[in-house]
Amino acid sequence: MSSVSKKIPCQTCGARSRNESSYTVPPTYKNHGFSLIELMIVVAIIGILVAIAYPAYTRQVQDSRRADCAGSLTGLANAMERFFTVNNTYVGA
Questions:
Q1: What percent of the chain has pLDDT above 90?
Q2: Residue ranges per domain, the chain?
């Protein structure tokens, strides 16, 4: 008989010897990316956020324009009062 022993793999990890690693490298996938469902979920979330944020944004723009107009009217009223103080009459009156 031959004294050469046949290496039998380990029953738990499949390694053929003590030096062989029991860890395997996971297979690499060529198709990295997002699925259609994931993209649809992201688009839906963005749509919900826009639906909530857009009215608040338009309200803020409207409020800032109103404040700008109020400031302009106050400046105009002050100019008219200065004119009245100097000339003792309003313009066009």
A1: 59
A2: 58-87
pLDDT tens-digit map of 34-76: 899 999 999 999 999 999 999 999 999 999 999 999 999 999 9
For residues 83 and 77, give the distance between their C-alpha atoms in angstroms, rounded to a whole number: 10
**Which residues lie below 8 Å from residue 91, measured CB to CB, with a gap of 6+?**
80, 83
Distance CA 27, CA 20 (A): 19
Q: What is the pTM of this model?
A: 0.50
- The answer to whether the beta carbons of residues 22 and 10 sit under 8 Å apart is yes
Rg over CA atoms, the chain: 40
The C-alpha atoms of residue 60 and residue 54 are separated, in whole angstroms, by 10
82 falls in which pLDDT band (50, 70, 90)? Answer: very high
Q: Which two tokens stand for residue 90?
A: 């309003």
